[in-house]
User: Fold this.
Amino acid sequence: MNAEQAALVERFNGFLQKIDDRLTELMGEAENGLGALFAEHPDDPLVVGNALTGLDYQIEQLRSKVQETWDGQIEAAFSNFDDGAFLDVGLDRKEDFLLAFSERWDTFKTGAMVAFYEAMRPRAEAGLRREYRCSACSAGIELPQQTEPASIYCPFCRAVNQVIPETVVVQYFGSGFGGGVGHAAGEAAALPHRYAVERHKIAINRYRRARDWCPETLAQLEELEKLELAYWTTYVNTSAAATGRASDQALVKSRMDAFRKYELENNQVWVRAKKK
Amino acid sequence: MSAELEELERALEGELEWIRARRTKAGWPEVQARLGMEKKPIAFGGVTPEHVRAAVRLLARNAALRLEELQHRVERARASALWDRLARLADEEAERHRQASGARLGQVFANAAENVDFWKSQWDGAKNVLVLLCKTCGAPQERTRDYRCGYCGGELFRRQEEEP
Assistant:
């Protein structure tokens, strides 16, 4: 890299640092605001979700400045000094920065949801100890699973009671189909694996680009499969641990089947090696 | 004598500025250490108005102790004004922090909570335990997933064609 190229890279890094600093500021303000929201609406994930959606928009505005500035000014400057590889230096720097930017923000969001549910936990646990009485004769009835609604037959008066757990219990534990602390904890734990998959895909592309766009190697594709499996396994196991439900291995299988079908089984290297 | 009061007011202002500059997760442990507060790590949510209120209350208490020593030697009206200020100080600083925290993103959080009360009111008072009653004879449902009354043969639910 010559002196002019190095100076351009430094200026680009300076611009990216400003974006990163602004992200840090926004995350600090967001954390304060979310903390206040948790205190005012401790049992309502809808409010937190709304706030995070609104914050997503603010963050996206910031993120899009990188691409706009690249398109408007920086790409031309890198192209001017391009010697066959220099433009890629700029593109790679932008790509790495945007991935790290997204990872920081996603980590913040998943952390926020985990914090929200952690704060809800004492009330949810108290809700689990609630006693239910038959609506017709007031005899005590028990939910077979304290976190799931059920139709319970009263052995005393024979009425069928539709029993729904306390709202805070339903909000905290979610349903058997997801949501609640299970999803929040699973997503937070699995997020680094998601970004490991993205980074591996970027590494594969750069490997191919350096070799005149040769095909991926089988080892790279198998590593991709391993990383994707790590994501889903972590998500499912962490969700199960957070809620006390059984680990949903069927979800792992269905996600991996879809991943293989759409990301691997249309690749000739994979097809030839695996004979699929 | 008024110099002592001015010194106290200046010191108080200085301490407040010092605390305001450290209302972050990174800076707050210093505030806790300086004021002899319990060193609790700041959870998600950052430094809240309650944290600020607790810290400034300690500051105000220290200033009040000093003012108590001075008040008989200084002008009564000025001492009284400072007493009033010390009484309100913690709440004012907490509110100031609350407003500063949400300044740029305030609208995002206001929008997030806008329709919550409406939906909460729809669910308030909702019962957790329900028994379906036959709309003909009032008998309770006695078999799960069977919506025909075991006593009169009537329907437990109103049919769509009967809707007004």
About this structure: The longest helix of chain A spans residues 86-128. The first strand of chain A starts at residue 132 and ends at 133. Helices of chain A lie at 3-40, 45-80, 86-128, 167-173, 180-210, 218-243, 249-264, 268-274. Strands of chain A lie at 132-133, 140-141, 150-153, 160-163.
